[in-house]
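Key result, reporting period 2: structure in, sequence out.
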């Protein structure tokens, strides 16, 4: 028996990163990049490394460049943690697993450490493969929580539910993570939105700006846990940006959400340290008439452009700075 599962990159539209702090967000899937996991029945459990886990280099410079792009960890620890967490979940839920083993491997085109949710995509695809292989059904609203626990509980990484929700539900989703909801039902309220309601969007990123999101979030999380008033107020304000954006989208006023992007970025900068090169990308986009904010915690931004002429101007300006730009593919390609 063989199984294959795909999970896509994502971009936070507005409200992020309040998802880890009982906030609200809107997120969208990016089918432009994907993590694919393949699983085959095998006599033993085997986790096969990919090129991102390589240990052989032609020079110290090449090793250094690989660390800058991929960090010190590839995907192996994520897959092992996902397998262990899946096994623990099934054990605790009294779901007996058939006595058979597998070989599992992955490949990913998601740029690493840019805040496009490459790690959670790999975990999501791994869990889905295991569910299919062992014929285990996990309710859709609960699945993102299991996926999140792989990183937060197994690996001690500070993270929120947003990435896992959008990678499970796909498309465009408005997410409400109010504390009362989370404590009452164990998950938030997730509302699918029609991608046609969105204004024209672009994603831009620079590969020399990678930093693990766990590094970025930890200090703010510590302040939040300590009841820091500034952090609490900022997270509430970020969630309010998402609520307002949802209302505008549903009212057919998607082109009016641009100022909420600007507000989102200002709020983020008030409590998080943001690399100057990220700020420069935002400044460049705004100078050409676009609205922009960080797509996640890394070197990628998401923005709104008015027309094709503005998009071409953005592409030319970014290209001069070594910045890649593309239009997000949210829906599957029509066959």
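The corresponding designed sequence is given below.
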């Amino acid at each position: 028996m063989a199984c294959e599962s795909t999970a896509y990159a994502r971009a936070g539209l507005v409200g992020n990163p309040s998802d880890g702090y009982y906030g609200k967000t809107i997120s969208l899937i990016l089918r432009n990049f994907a993590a694919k996991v393949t699983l085959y029945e095998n006599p033993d459990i085997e986790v096969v490394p990919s090129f991102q886990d390589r240990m052989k280099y032609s020079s110290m410079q090449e090793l250094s460049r690989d660390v800058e792009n991929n960090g010190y960890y590839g995907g192996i620890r994520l897959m092992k943690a996902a397998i262990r967490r899946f096994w623990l979940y099934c054990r605790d839920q009294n779901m007996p697993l058939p006595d058979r083993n597998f070989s599992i491997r992955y490949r990913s085109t998601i740029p690493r450490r840019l805040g496009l949710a490459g790690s959670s995509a790999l975990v999501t695809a791994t869990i889905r493969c295991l569910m299919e292989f062992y014929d285990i059904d996990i309710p859709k609203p609960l699945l993102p929580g299991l996926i999140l626990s792989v990183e937060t509980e197994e690996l001690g990484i500070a993270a929120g539910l947003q990435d896992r929700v959008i990678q499970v539900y796909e498309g465009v989703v408005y997410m409400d993570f109010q504390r009362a909801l989370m404590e009452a039902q164990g998950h938030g309220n997730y509302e699918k939105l029609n991608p046609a309601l969105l204004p024209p969007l672009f994603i831009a990123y620079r590969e020399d700006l990678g930093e693990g999101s766990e590094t970025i979030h930890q200090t703010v999380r510590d302040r939040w846990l300590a009841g820091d008033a500034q952090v609490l107020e900022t997270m509430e304000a970020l969630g309010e940006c998402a609520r307002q954006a949802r209302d505008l989208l549903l009212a057919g006023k998607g082109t009016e959400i641009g100022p909420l992007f600007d507000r989102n970025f200002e709020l983020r900068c008030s409590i998080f340290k943001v690399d100057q090169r990220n700020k420069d990308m935002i400044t460049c986009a705004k100078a050409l008439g676009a609205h922009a904010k960080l797509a996640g915690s890394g070197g990628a931004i998401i923005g709104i452009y008015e027309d094709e002429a503005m998009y071409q101007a953005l592409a030319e300006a970014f290209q001069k700075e070594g910045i890649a730009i593309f239009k997000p593919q949210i829906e599957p390609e029509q066959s």
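The beta strands are 2-14, 24-42, 46-48, 101-108, 172-176, 189-193, 201-205, 291-294, 300-304, 324-326. The chain has two domains: 2-193, 195-326. This case is discussed further under Risks and Mitigation.
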